[in-house]
Design brief:
The complex is a heterodimer of chains A (508) and B (622).
Chain A: H1 7-23, H2 29-51, E1 56-60, E2 73-77, H3 79-102, H4 109-128, H5 132-150, H6 156-187, H7 192-198, H8 204-221, H9 230-236, H10 239-265, H11 270-292, H12 297-324, H13 329-364, H14 380-394, H15 400-414, H16 418-443, H17 459-474, H18 481-487, H19 489-496, H20 500-506
Antiparallel strand pairs in A: 1-2
Chain B: H1 5-20, H2 26-48, E1 56-60, E2 74-77, H3 79-102, H4 119-135, H5 139-155, H6 162-193, E3 203-204, H7 208-225, H8 233-240, H9 243-269, E4 270-271, H10 274-296, H11 301-322, H12 325-356, H13 372-385, H14 392-407, H15 413-416, H16 418-443, H17 460-478, H18 480-488, H19 506-529, E5 538-539, E6 542-543, H20 557-561, H21 563-573, H22 579-597, H23 602-621
Parallel strand pairs in B: 3-4
Antiparallel strand pairs in B: 1-2, 5-6
Helix pairs in contact in B: 1-2, 1-4, 2-3, 2-4, 3-4, 3-9, 3-12, 3-17, 4-5, 4-9, 5-6, 6-7, 6-8, 7-9, 8-9, 8-11, 9-11, 9-12, 10-11, 10-16, 11-12, 11-14, 11-16, 12-13, 12-14, 12-17, 13-16, 13-17, 14-16, 14-17, 17-18
The chains are: A mainly alpha (508), B mainly alpha (622).
């Protein structure tokens, strides 16, 4: 089973290259290859999760350790990685399904799929990589693919967005690379598990490196004040790509790495935990207030991504704070579970919302909420699934967002962070208000006369949206303890037992 | 043993099944929904007929058979929840019957009547969730079902134009916001008491935490039931929602559940301190007066009813706030009565709307000849809500008044101010009468508007619920002391109520009223034989001008022109008292302030990043 792990990187990379090479003669190859590849990886992920909670370590090349120094490139899949694999696979698959009809209007369809596969390969690589330099390489693969995809329509707005995205992405790479350099300087190793062993106890230098890492990956995760690239990039990309960027990319290459580094690799430290929590809270509040004023459907969603990532980081940051301060483990458990659950939920409902926005744009040709209206009768699947996603993101039962929201708020109250709980409540109210705004302007009200004859989006788009809406409901079941034990608990355990990572991975 | 879980599970499951059926099977869906609501009504009567002081845990639902799930699913029945369940069952059935006919189009060519899609699905889910809210003993299940009700409320109004979609938005935002506050309150309640079991929680409102918890839960109740200042969604909602839904949710179920939870909080969960009582009384009095003043000047009759529905909540809160058995029983009795007559009023309004297509008072008139049954029912409801003896609305208000007087003998600042509460409550009652004079005369009396085509009486499915509720109004009024109070409100501890001053003997008074009406008729007939005195015609206490046909719109315009009131009406029109509007202004202001910073200039953004990194560095390292 161990040997299946590299497939996560090999299959999408292979698909990408085959698509480019063969696509020249055989256009349909991109679609024929992408869907089965992602379907297989989704199946594999569910298989891995059913095998949990064991941690799988694969040494690429099979090199043995030399003088206690791990030489091989490690691919590690533990409980926490599995959650990310699940997100990437499921959202990737559904987005690819949606794209089948959506991309028909592009002239270079096969390049779209090649880049999508490249981005997915990069994300799989980041979450699986067991050493920090390969993590960086995969991160760049995913980022560069996303730079191109954001500009895929090659219009003025897209090019401007991707330019900003690249510049700030470059800044983030600089920060990350500098931090990696400093880590190598102090520890003499790049292997994550080995770094965890070699790093000295907390000192000023280590905090300096930590801040570089937080800022670098925080830029990728769009935490305030590093969020400024996101609204442009996420709203300009083609909608399936926006769904991937908001639903998956910022989690896989931003949040995941921050959590992994500061729980398992670098010793938990109250100052860092506090910084992460504060950044999360800031993102949560500033993002949502910026979002509610937007009139561009996708821009509004993009700002909500900042806010919701803040929600996730708030949950996990509180868990980190409680652990660092030696608080009750059960409360930390609740906070982290809430954060991870919200991350899982967010990937589904935010991806769905972008797909809805894409569907509306596909049919009507506009993203401006002021020009839309009355579509609920004309586009029942789009409006219905968008309703499900909106209620999920606003935390209205019975959708999944309600349960993760309630977990985070309860955790904040139990840990004694009453003000954070209050802020979380306010954010969820403003979120609700801004999504009722979307519904009022896009789907309710009077239908502009030029849209009298519009129809629902094509089949594959409608199918992908319906499936995701169904997921928004089904994922509520993760609140049930027995289901939670399969999906979420291994991940929470992997984070809670902070020091176990290196010993398990290195096998000693 | 009856399978009580079915009360909750069956409507929800069948509702989901109906969702999957195609939408053009509306009639079949309606019939299924009627059958289900009839069955749950039967079950709810069975629940109610459990022995008097029956308090029991009904066991738990675990129909998913998932281990670890049953601890969230405790159900419990006591006097209070029995009462609520019974009336949810009755109303669920009656309105389902009413919708059967109401939802059909008037005529093939007429404009669509804006019934939302999947009406019956959301109707049934609402029914199941409401039973669940009343029966559950676990706060987590409670908050889940309570939130579900907000969702169905939103889906049961169709946003077919700008105004109705704005109303839907406002409703969901206010209800959803209160649900979030409820979550906060439940979280606080949990750390105060370490349990989610409602029946195990008994807290004082002395510490900060428990007081904040109480206030959070109070906000949820006030928004659901519609009390000042969180009531503003109700008038907007009732104006644009189908009348059956206005009767079902804002008028009946939301009141029952909101006040149910408030009563639960006041009776067992919390021990109210003096200033909390004072706060509740202020809320109650403000709600009574402000909303009835707004009702007086409305032109749309469904909106007028919406404001009155808010005003009556004030009486319930006042009653509950008193904390005495008499006050609590009075408040709960008023809740039941209100659900009956206000539901009935919305049904009659729906009948009028369906048969005339008009929603403004100015466009109607003279319908009493054409819709005599609807008129009679509406008259009974209107008299009842205005507190005219011997109808039920009078009796519950009477109980609340005597409750206030009795409360006045106690010590404490709220007790000392009893005169104020009493005056405001009685003033509110008389203003309610005034607004219903406007409503009744505007719709049913006067001259028929030429623009209205032929109007005929409604068919049986709409006719029966109206009559049934009107009969209930009369029966609950006349037999209040003998039968209703001992039968329904024993659990409030009102056993010794007979010794209280101001006893009202309804049956004998009713007979006297009946006799006086008959005597009045005899005198009238005798009087018409001789020449009678002529005077200028006046209606509702205001002299009519030269116009031949009077317009009910002119009623009480004088209030609006008075200087003192004018100021407030002016501000109310500018939405100064609307929490939703105030919140919206704040949020949008903050939003535009933040947007200004996002210039879109790349170099600024890079500077932010650098400053961000530098700030964190400086803060952490130094």
């Amino acid at each position: 089973m161990n040997s299946l792990i590299p497939l996560y990187v090999v299959i999408p990379l292979g698909t990408a290259f085959l698509t480019i090479i063969l696509g020249r003669w055989f256009k349909a190859i991109s679609k024929i290859l992408t869907i089965p590849a992602l379907l297989f990886l989704t199946g594999l992920t569910f298989y891995l999760i059913s095998q949990s909670p064991q941690t799988i370590v694969y040494r690429v090349g099979g090199f043995a350790d030399l003088l206690d120094i791990p030489l091989a490139i490690f691919l590690v899949a533990d409980g926490f990685t599995n959650i990310l694999l699940l997100i990437i696979s499921v959202v990737g698959l559904l987005v690819a399904l949606y794209s089948l009809d959506y991309t028909k209007r592009f002239s270079a369809e096969e390049k779209f799929y090649a880049l999508l596969n490249l981005m997915i390969a990069g994300m799989y690589g980041v979450v699986l990589a067991g050493d920090i330099f390969n993590l960086y390489v995969f991160l760049e693969i995913a980022s560069i693919a996303s730079y191109v995809l954001v500009a895929f329509n090659i219009e003025k707005q897209q090019l401007e967005a991707t330019f900003k995205y690249q510049i700030l992405g470059g800044v983030s790479s600089l920060l990350i690379l500098a931090a990696i350099g400093f880590i190598y300087w102090t520890t003499g190793t790049l292997n994550l598990a080995d770094i965890a062993r070699q790093l000295p106890d907390a000192n000023a230098f280590q905090i300096f490196v930590s801040v570089l890492l937080i800022s670098g990956f925080g830029l990728k995760a769009a935490m305030v004040p590093f969020h400024s690239w996101l609204p442009d990039a996420h709203s300009s990309a083609p909608s399936p790509i926006s769904a991937m960027l908001s639903g998956v990319l910022i989690k896989a290459i931003g949040i995941y790495v921050i959590i992994r580094l500061f729980f398992n690799i670098i010793q938990i430290n109250p100052q860092i935990a506090l910084t992460v929590t504060i950044l999360g809270t800031l993102s949560m509040i500033i993002g949502v207030f910026l979002a509610i004023g937007q009139w561009d459907f996708k821009r509004l969603l993009a700002y909500h991504s900042i806010s919701q990532m803040g929600y996730v980081i708030l949950g996990i940051g509180m868990g980190m704070l409680i652990l660092a301060n030696g608080g009750k483990e059960s409360i930390a458990n609740l906070a982290i579970t809430g954060g991870l659950f919200h991350m899982l939920n967010h990937s589904i409902f935010k991806a769905l919302l972008f797909l809805n926005a894409g569907s509306v744009e596909y049919i009507t040709g506009t993203r401006s909420l002021q020009k839309l209206g009355g579509l609920s009768n004309k586009m029942q699947i789009t409006s219905g699934s968008s309703f499900a996603a909106s209620m999920a993101i606003s935390g209205i039962p019975p959708f999944n967002g309600f349960f993760s929201k309630i977990m985070i708020i309860f955790a904040a109250i139990q840990a004694g962070y009453y003000w954070l709980a209050l802020l979380a409540v306010i954010v969820s109210i403003v979120t609700l208000a801004s999504f009722t705004k979307v519904h009022k302007y896009a789907f309710y009200g009077d239908l502009p006369s030029k849209y009298e004859n519009v129809k629902e989006s094509p089949f594959s788009m409608a199918l992908a949206m319906s499936l995701m809406a169904l997921l928004c409901l089904i994922m509520s079941l993760m609140i049930v303890p027995s289901v939670r034990a399969i999906f979420l608990q291994p991940a929470v355990d992997a984070l809670m037992q902070t020091t176990n990572y290196s010993s398990i991975v290195l096998g000693k | 043993m009856i399978d009580f879980q079915m009360l909750i599970i069956m409507p929800i499951v069948i509702g989901v099944v109906l969702f999957l059926l195609p939408d053009n099977l509306k009639i079949i869906k309606g019939v299924i929904s009627l059958l289900i609501s009839a069955y749950t009504a039967y079950l709810s009567v069975m629940v109610f007929s459990l022995p008097h002081q029956f308090i029991a845990t009904l066991g738990s639902i675990n129909w998913l058979y998932i281990p670890g799930f049953e601890k969230f699913m405790d159900l419990k029945v006591d006097g209070l929840s029995k009462l609520i369940v019974l009336f949810i069952g009755i109303f669920g059935f009656l309105y389902s019957l009413y919708s059967l006919s109401y939802n059909r189009r008037r005529a093939p060519n007429s404009e669509p009547n804006h019934i939302p899609g999947n009406y019956h699905t959301y109707y049934l889910i609402t029914l199941g969730a409401s039973f669940g809210v009343a029966l559950t003993d676990n706060l987590l299940l409670f908050v889940f079902l309570w939130g579900l009700l907000g969702l169905t409320l939103y889906k049961l109004i169709k946003g077919h134009n700008e105004e109705s979609s704005a109303a839907a938005k406002k409703t969901l935002v206010l209800i959803g916001a209160s649900d979030s506050v409820l979550i906060l309150g439940i979280g606080l309640l949990y750390i105060c008491s370490h349990t989610f079991k409602i029946s195990d929680i008994h807290l004082g409102t002395t510490t900060t935490l428990s007081t904040v918890a109480f206030l959070s839960l109070l906000i949820a109740c006030m928004t659901k039931a519609g009390a000042f200042p969180f009531h503003t969604w109700i008038p907007d909602y009732t104006k644009d929602a189908p009348a059956s839904i206005s009767a079902y949710l804002p008028a009946s179920l939301d009141k029952l559940l909101g006040i149910y939870f408030l009563a639960r909080m006041c009776m067992s969960t919390f021990i109210l301190s003096g200033w909390v009582t004072l706060l509740l009384l202020i809320i109650g009095a403000l709600t009574i007066i402000t909303s009835v003043l707004m009702a007086l000047v409305q032109h749309n009759y469904k909106r007028l009813l919406g404001y009155c529905a808010v005003s009556q909540v004030g009486y319930m809160i006042t009653g509950l706030a008193l904390g005495t058995p008499l006050g609590i029983a009075g408040g709960l009795f008023h809740m039941v009565n209100h659900a009956i007559y206000k539901g009935g009023l919305f049904l009659t309004a729906g009948s009028v709307e369906k048969h005339t297509g008009k929603e403004e008072l100015g466009e109607l008139g003279g319908l009493c000849k054409y819709m005599p049954v609807t008129f009679a029912a509406a008259l009974v409801f209107a008299l009842s809500i205005s507190g005219i003896p011997p109808l039920n609305g009078f009796y519950s208000k009477w109980m609340i008044y005597t409750g206030i007087i009795e409360f006045g003998s106690g010590k404490g600042i709220a007790n000392q101010l009893w005169m104020i509460w009493l005056t405001l409550a009685m003033l509110g009652s008389s203003l309610t009468l005034a607004s219903f004079v406007k409503l009744i005369s505007g719709i049913y009396l006067g001259r028929k508007n030429e623009q209205i085509g032929t109007v005929k009486e409604v068919g049986f499915p709409m006719f029966f619920p109206q009559i049934f509720l009107a009969m209930l109004c009369i029966a609950f009024g006349i037999f209040a002391a003998r039968w209703v109070i001992p039968e329904f409100f024993e659990f409030t501890g009102i056993g010794s109520w007979k010794s209280l001053p101001g006893l009202w003997n309804a049956p004998s008074v009713s007979i006297m009223i009946l006799i006086s009406i008959i005597v009045g008729f005899i005198i009238y007939w005798m009087g018409t034989l001789k020449t009678s005195r002529r005077s200028d015609s006046f209606v509702g206490g205001e002299k009519l001008q030269q116009e031949l046909s009077f317009s009910s719109l002119e009623f009480y315009k004088t209030i609006g022109t008075m200087k003192f009131f004018n100021y407030f009406y002016d501000k109310a029109n500018k939405k100064w008292f609307d929490v939703y509007h105030l919140g919206k202004e704040c949020v949008l202001g903050l939003s535009s302030a933040l947007s200004v910073c996002h210039t879109g200039i790349l170099s600024t953004y890079v500077v932010w990043v650098v400053l961000g990194v530098a700030t964190i560095m400086v803060l952490l390292i130094i």
